[in-house]
Fold this sequence. Notes:
Layout: E1 3-4, E2 10-11, H1 14-22, E3 26-27, E4 29-34, E5 40-45, E6 48-53, E7 56-63, H2 67-75, E8 77-83, H3 88-93, E9 107-109, E10 116-118, E11 122-136, E12 139-151, E13 157-160, E14 163-166
Antiparallel strand pairs: 1-2, 3-13, 4-5, 4-8, 6-7, 7-12, 8-11, 9-10, 11-12, 13-14
Amino acid sequence: MAVSSELGEQTCAxxxxxxxxxxxPTGVAVVTSTGxxxxxxxxxxxxxxxxxxxPPTLLICLHTRSSTLEALYESGRFAVNLLRAExxxxxxxxxxxxxxRFAHVAWAFSAASGQPVLVEDAIAFAGCRVTRSLLVGDxxxxxxxxxxxxRAAGAPLLYGxxxxxxxxxxxxx
Length: 173
């Protein structure tokens, strides 16, 4: 059931929390960075939100054991690749432990930020400079100031209720 916190209040069970968050549909992104060895790292991330417009800042949450998080700390930079509706294969690829995920996708280093961009599978890309991070449980909350943005036409990939879906704009209006 529930576990007690330091204040004597109840904390919900992990499975209940996962079910709650799974009920909240979100866009799907692949967060990328470059390690000290010069090789790209990346993972699928749905824990992404806008924080501020001035300066433009977003927030991502990555597991503390992630090699992408390690690369992000080494370089002080990361990129957010918002996946297009047809990007389910890429979302699944970057969510699994695969040795060289980048060998299976078209990508390039961004001229502006130097971070890996998924050139065919993203409808938008944001290069970011790490400004702050905070450890919370088994994840790092990372704030990034957006330094450059590239956008392309297309609909975003969504995820909720443990399924992928495509954005379907209202036909009436």
